[in-house]
Design brief:
The complex is a heterodimer. By secondary structure, chain A is an alpha/beta fold. Chain A is built from 20 helices and 24 strands. Chain A starts with 17 loop residues before the first strand and ends with a helix. Chain B is 64% helix and 6% strand. The longest helix of chain B has 30 residues. Classes of the chains: A alpha/beta, B mainly alpha.
């Protein structure tokens, strides 16, 4: 369909779709300048998916915008089929498909009108449209919704419509900027299936960015980014293969999974340790002799089983090598327990929710949910956007009154004593509600006084926070300018200023790099060990493994409630003997949808 | 389709521009129709502004509460009080003591005090005449001056009547007979309502346009548009044309309400009115586009548009406040306000007719501003994010 262009000089980058040569990008704001990319060189190969992998702030979006001709590189050269993007932006753009992070949809236009607009802009003739539309609508499953407004679609459907709009005219290169962020696992899987299909059937080249490490394994070629630099590139196998023989699943009777993980992390020969079911998955340093005694000295009955390495193992071990001052073996002390916590250490659930309900008009955001959370428990709420997690959270924090049911937090009925209950709650929101213009120290001071701590108490808590969260070196920095990992730590410190009994964490780790996420969970584990109850929402399925118990929510209801193992057990079949949390989640959602369909 | 492309495809077909413009304009109209806030700014706000200024705001002083202090009632004072009663400018209350009248003014029940002393009836026919004390509530200086003039006029007329009645001449040395041109009924609606058209068109052209463009940046749709074959000129025209049509709609709404509802005369030609309005709308759209290129979020764009375009059109255009009576420094600044030229044209076409010596220079100024703002917008607009 596409003809060869004889005028393009394809001398030095023959065969490459996109070629970045020593590209730097500096952003200036006021008298500060930030180097978003530092001498980046890589290529996008034809007919395959190339993945840009890295945490938020690594420079992924900057690369995408440079490739789309939306930004000018500060130095270096970017060519598309040998044509300089800077010199011929419109020619390059006419053969690109670019889906920005928010899908670029007009929310007050219908599905059909969005498609029409992009077809007009891409110059798709009216005669070609019916065939192309039906192909795209079938592929994305949007055919029944053509007259629905884009703003009224679910996150996953918006994402697919965004993709359909960029594909109205088959592009030579498809640029997808974090297409799976904030989208439920089912839609994530579907998107990968669609993109994989396009590569196979149309030979399309794809450049895709993501912060999900498990998605890297679906790419043919991955480029790892960290803080504006390339950490490494290759096939996913190139990263996981060297880890062969270094990855183990460890189980030990008599040790709680989180304390086992912590002891393993503290072991100098361990690179990474994450909880997986009742076991801990361990990556050890290369050339280290591994046996049960050296990994968990003193623990009896330790079982060690070698497992297949994953892409993530390679990434973490690369990161650990690069990031020298890693605080892997950090110590975290939550300080002495205040009297209120010591006194009320009685048994019985600290959060009791019965038939909780929340209506907005005739829409049920939360529909009769019931669960208990015990003291010192880490309880997770899992669900896609719009499942009712945040609404449940807001009701538990006393920010939103319930429409029905009972709600007791720390022994107090939230209907009558929401204010008292709030004094015993720490809340950390998704966006890390910090005052961006204030310094780290000023934020801590403000939250300390907002919680009514007296001067002496405030001073000791601030000292504690600066030390335990390693914020001392940045204490006078403006918090808006901090890296995301630091912001997250500061937000957690602020939420803990008044030593709450219960900590609410709303998507606490979204966008944070994997090392910072591990560090964060170590702190949370330490808090839970000291009797602080933690409620957390997350969309990282593997993080659900850190929870003692969790509830999976969809459409305002709890689909499953139990320990991670119990939930995975429900989906264990002969064909799927070792389901992951994501498999379980998807299985439960599909089961729920089947039941809904049968009922209707 | 299955063939892997190894080179850049040829540029898209030529007729694409028309298709792209068509798509953009249709999209814009669908958005306007479905977004209640656009409808509110484009139609409801003009409608309520017209009603408010047409009926609510009047710069004329009518039914002014006046405290008439009559210390010694007699036929003369009764006759003068009658003159005040009969006037539509006043609604007088008669007091017998000055202190009561002062209380009334302090309590804002009276905006003026007319004090007739106990010897009024005797002195009025004496050679020196009778002194009348007039006290004006002056916190609103404009109304105060008007009221003072009206009181003086009422007394003068009464004196003249008294003189004719008694057959003798009184202290009325000048016989002034004012004749008011252009707005012979002296109705403030007659110049407020045409001036309001400038405000309404600024609202649609600058405020609404800058906000809808900023919205595209905010929601990331501009980013998606930029990576299509569409050109920046097409994107700008795609905004300009729909909001030009909307703005002209607002103008026609305002002109019809002015003419039919408020019965403002239209002495000049309608076609000249439409042509100059179109020109002014281009200036407003140019300002709106320029603001949205600089401010890429709706809140900032809205604030800037209000401060830079809407408020000056209200205050500095001569729509309410006469430019000639402003301090010289402010008068100089008004030359930068596009609405100033348009308000002059509007008031001329509505109240005086096609006075070319006024219309031509003001139109020239608008033309220069339109070229400037649209030109700068086109130059500054980039399909880039930095």
């Amino acid at each position: 369909m596409l003809t060869k262009d004889s005028t393009s000089d394809s001398a030095n980058s023959a065969g490459q779709v996109l070629d970045f040569k020593d590209v730097t990008k500096v952003f200036k704001s006021g008298n500060r300048s930030v180097e978003a990319l530092q001498g980046v060189s890589f290529q996008v190969r034809p007919g395959v998916i190339t993945g840009l992998i890295g945490p938020d702030g690594a420079g992924k979006t900057t690369i995408m915008r440079l490739a789309a001709g939306l930004l000018i590189p500060s130095s270096g050269r970017i060519t598309f089929f040998g044509v300089d993007i800077l010199q011929h932006p419109s020619r390059v753009q006419s053969s690109l498909g670019y889906m920005p992070q928010h899908f670029g949809l007009y929310e007050d236009l219908t599905v059909r009108e969005n498609l029409d607009l992009y077809a007009d802009l891409q110059g798709v003739g009216h005669s070609e449209r019916p065939a192309r539309y039906s192909q795209l609508l079938d592929m994305t499953g949007l055919a029944p919704f053509t007259s629905r407004l884009a703003g009224q679609l679910s996150g996953g459907m918006k994402q697919k419509l965004g993709l359909a709009c960029t594909l109205v005219r088959s592009p030579s290169l498809l640029l997808l900027d974090e297409p799976t962020v904030g989208v439920d696992p089912v839609s994530r899987r579907e998107l990968w299936a669609i993109v994989g299909g396009l590569v196979k059937s149309e030979g399309m080249s794809v450049l895709l960015s993501t912060a999900y490490l498990d998605e890297a394994e679906r790419c043919s070629w991955v480029v790892l980014f960290h803080e504006g630099k390339i950490l490494g590139e290759g096939t996913p196998m190139n990263f996981s293969a060297p880890m062969k023989g270094r990855t183990f699943s460890v189980s030990a009777s008599g040790i709680q999974k989180r304390s086992m993980q912590q002891r393993l992390m503290d072991n100098p020969s361990v690179v990474d340790a994450v909880i997986q079911g009742e076991q801990v998955r361990v990556v050890v340093k290369s050339g280290v002799q591994t046996d049960a005694e050296s990994l968990l000295p003193g623990a009896g009955d330790v079982m060690l089983r070698e497992v297949e390495p994953r892409f993530e193992d390679g990434f973490i071990s690369l990161l650990r090598e690069r990031v020298a001052e890693t605080s892997q073996r950090m110590s975290f002390d939550i300080g002495e327990l205040s009297s209120s916590q010591a006194l009320s250490a009685a048994s019985g659930p600290i959060i009791k929710v019965q038939d909780l309900e929340r209506r907005f008009g005739d829409f049920y955001a939360v529909r009769g949910i019931t669960f208990d959370v015990g003291r010192g428990e880490i309880f997770g709420l899992l669900g896609a956007n719009g499942a009712g997690k945040s609404t449940t959270f807001r009701m538990l924090c006393g920010l939103l009154p319930a429409s029905g049911g009972t709600l007791r937090v720390a022994g107090l009925d939230l209907r009558h004593s929401a204010a008292t209950a709030r004094g015993r709650i720490g809340y950390m929101s998704q966006k890390f509600s910090l005052y961006g213009m204030l310094s780290v120290l000023e934020n801590l001071q403000f939250f300390g006084s907002a919680y009514g701590l007296d001067r002496r108490r405030r001073a000791t808590r601030i000292d504690w926070a600066l030390e335990q969260f390693e914020l001392q070196p940045v204490s006078s920095d403006t918090s808006a300018d901090l890296p995301l990992g630091y912001k997250q730590r500061l937000a957690l410190a602020c939420a803990l200023m008044h030593e709450p009994d219960i900590l609410f964490l709303d998507e606490p780790t979204s966008g944070v790099d994997p090392l910072a996420r591990r560090e964060f969970w170590r702190r949370i584990s330490a808090l839970a060990e000291r009797g602080i109850t933690v409620m957390v929402t997350t969309h990282f399925m593997e993080e659900a493994e850190y929870c003692d118990r969790l509830a999976i929510m969809a459409a305002g209801e709890i689909l499953a409630l139990g320990t991670p193992e119990q939930i995975k057990d429900r989906m264990r079949t002969d064909s799927q003997p070792e389901p992951t949390m994501e498999d379980a989640f998807i299985g439960l959602l599909e089961e729920h949808e089947r039941m809904e369909a049968n009922a209707a | 389709m299955s063939e892997t492309s190894q080179s850049l495809p040829p540029p898209p077909v030529r007729f694409g521009s028309l298709m792209r413009m068509n798509g953009l304009i249709r999209k814009e109209f669908l958005q306007i129709l479905r977004d209640p806030s656009s409808i509110a700014i484009a139609f409801l706000m003009p409608f309520f502004l017209l009603l408010l200024f047409g009926y609510g705001v009047s710069l004329d002083a009518e039914h002014v509460p006046v405290a008439l202090v009559v210390e010694a009632p007699d036929p003369e004072t009764a006759s003068l009080a009658g003159s005040f009663m009969a006037s539509r400018y006043f609604s007088p209350t008669v007091y017998s003591r000055m202190s009561e009248a002062i209380t009334a003014m302090n309590e804002r029940r009276a905006d003026a005090i007319v004090h007739l002393r106990s010897d009024f009836g005797r002195m009025i026919y004496s050679s020196g005449g009778a002194p009348i004390q007039v006290i004006i509530e002056g916190s609103d200086a404009n109304t105060g001056r008007l009221v003072s003039g009206y009181i003086e006029g009422t007394v003068q007329i009464w004196l003249a009547q008294q003189a004719r009645f008694k057959g003798q001449s009184l202290q009325a040395p000048v016989d002034m007979r004012p004749r008011i041109w252009f707005n012979s009924e002296v109705r403030s609606q007659n110049f407020l309502v045409p001036g309001l058209i400038a405000v309404i068109m600024t609202l649609i052209g600058a405020l609404l346009t800058s906000m809808v463009v900023a919205r595209e940046w905010e929601r990331g749709t501009m980013e998606a548009l930029a990576v299509t074959p569409v050109t920046m000129t097409e994107i700008l025209l795609g905004k300009l044309i729909p909001y030009f049509i909307l703005g002209m709609g607002g103008m026609i709404l305002a002109v019809s309400m002015a003419y039919f509802l408020f019965e403002v005369p239209l002495r000049g030609s309608l076609w000249l009115l439409i042509a100059t309005s179109a020109l002014f709308l281009l200036v407003a759209l140019g300002m709106g586009l320029l603001i949205s290129i600089i401010a890429r979020n709706q809140f900032v764009a809205g604030q800037v548009a209000i401060i830079v375009t809407f408020l000056p059109a209200f205050i500095l255009s001569g729509f309410i406040f006469d430019i000639a009576s402003m301090p010289v420094g402010v008068q100089v600044i008004t030359h930068l306000i596009a609405a100033r030229y348009y308000v002059a044209i509007l008031q001329t076409i509505f109240l005086a007719g096609d006075i070319w010596s006024v219309i031509v220079p003001n139109t020239m100024a608008l033309f220069v501003m339109a070229v400037f703002f649209l030109g700068v917008s086109r130059r500054k607009a980039r399909k880039r994010l930095d």
